[in-house]
Amino acid sequence: MTTVVLVDDHNVVRHGIKALLEAEHNIQVVGEASTGVEAAQLVQKLKPDVLIVDLMLSDMSGLAVIRQSRKKSPKTAAIILSMYGNDCYVVEALQAGAKAYVLKDASPEELLKAVREVSAGFRYLAPPLSDRAIEAYLLRAEESKLDPYDMLSTREREVLILSAQGLTSSDIAEKLFISPRTVEVHRSRVMHKLSLHNRTELIHYAIRRGLLPRES
Q: Which phi and psi (to 5°) does residue 6 adopt?
């Protein structure tokens, strides 16, 4: 029996994934959490075989949850669930200790395959993610100096991406459930940390990082 702790701050999503997993005779969801703090406590208490965690949680990133969980339960294999398929996110997840990265629009079979693979000790990247490309990206990341992008918080990265997509402060505030003023503060910090001076430079940066398609 493969034991799983499931972490997602959307109840409907979490319950749907739980139903999918427990339809398998050899998978049991032993714990659920909606925040990173709850997740770390559950992993420490239950020592599950697998941790499935959303990349973006309300209180911390899924990567932070993985880092904490590795200290408390080293044998727990972590799977990141994410709506972002950019290489930079995948690389960060692997560097944080994730054993698998699955997109939220992947098929149910892909998530089940990821659980089976990581519980058997393997790494898994769901299509269309390229394992070969990630290996090359990881090698370049190890050889490079500290990237200013690494200094951005999860919220700052969200604001960066949404700003580059052309959303206004009000639009972003509505999506992230924060105030327009808070959005402006985050954007100002992003611009400062990345040494950007205007919206055009921000958009070009996002394209170079692979955060936006070049067609944008």
A: -115, 130
